[in-house]
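Internal tracking record. Fields below are filled automatically when a chain is submitted to the structure queue. Please do not edit lines marked as system-generated. If the sequence contains nonstandard residues, flag them in the REMARKS field before resubmitting.
Queue: standard
Priority: normal
Entity type: single polypeptide chain
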Amino acid sequence: MSKLRCGLIGNPLGHSWSPEIHAILGDYDYSLWPMEEDAVAPFLKARDFDAINVTIPYKKTVMPHLDRISDEARRIGSVNTIVREADGSLSGYNTDYFGLSAMLDRRGFELRGKKVVILGSGGASVTAQTVAADRGAREIFVVTHRENTPETLAKHGDCEILINTTPVGMFPKNGETPASLDCFPHLEAVVDMIYNPARTALILDAEARGIPSTSGLPMLVAQAKVAAELFTRVPIPDSLFDLALSSVSKAKRNLALVGMPGCGKSTVGRLFAKHSGRVFVDLDEEIVREAGRPIPEIFASDGEAAFRDIESGVLAKFSKQSSLVIATGGGAVIRAENRRLMRENSVVLHLTRPLGELAKDGRPLSQANSAEALWNARRDFYRSVADAEIPVDADPSVTLSRVAEWWENLSLV
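SYSTEM-GENERATED OUTPUT FOLLOWS
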């Protein structure tokens, strides 16, 4: 029996994570079919597929060509999943509705009786409005692009649930935020539908304030799970959802290595990159490439502050990318902006080594200061930014084994 022929239509599609997700969720072919708008109607008329997902900008375009539309899709006014029935007719659904609902349930975010502020007024906003209404929100206020001012937001300081449906802060515009959380002193939860980067500026701001939050990746995987169930007409266990979520999250995250100068970050990073099939980035090498001169020369002629400026710029460039292994410089953690950059899209691993075993060659600050002084000045920074800590062995292969085992067992659900 041949596999179901499924896929995704939209334009553009180069950024899509759907193939990786659906490869885990079901045993069917899943292709990307980018197309111009005038090709959508002929594509649907030909019905040369079993089921498809639909993404921007065709979630409304497809609706007139369908034989039936589900209740939630009709209320939202868009379709993101189409199934060709046994009689050849086409049924449209909106699985984003169920994806957002599942994400809220997963985090235990209660909307009933709450004031919900939704940033953005596009299609994703309508989905959020519908879910919030169905979940009994006390009040729902939608902030349009034009209305998104501190003055407007300040009028809704009693907001308890904030949902961002705008693309502000999405890759490659990492670091931008759609609103200051200072406007909402009573927040109980922050929901950001963006899933790349893993932690947007909005999510990082929420974490810094101790406000529970979630990125959009669980929603992306949950809506794909519902779509896969519509494709195959077979229930998918939650364990497979967890596997897809963790696998995709881990595959897309960078691994950033931090630790004292000379502890072995570059050596371990190169070994793990080769082991895992990832691209390795040595931040110090990239700084030299960017500046066009050696690091000791930068320190000698321009001072440490100038070096740190270059370092932050180079880190910003690579930290927003995906699936890299990044060996940072020993002092990269000093600046708060760098620690924030690392946490955007990376799992951060602190490599430790006895101070007497640290290499000092070519490291200006290591030569000018004792290892103990540097450690005392930086240890809290290493520990605050790191997700885990692993000791470095004199034998690099032993350290590689430790890192590989930790990474294999790492769950990002």
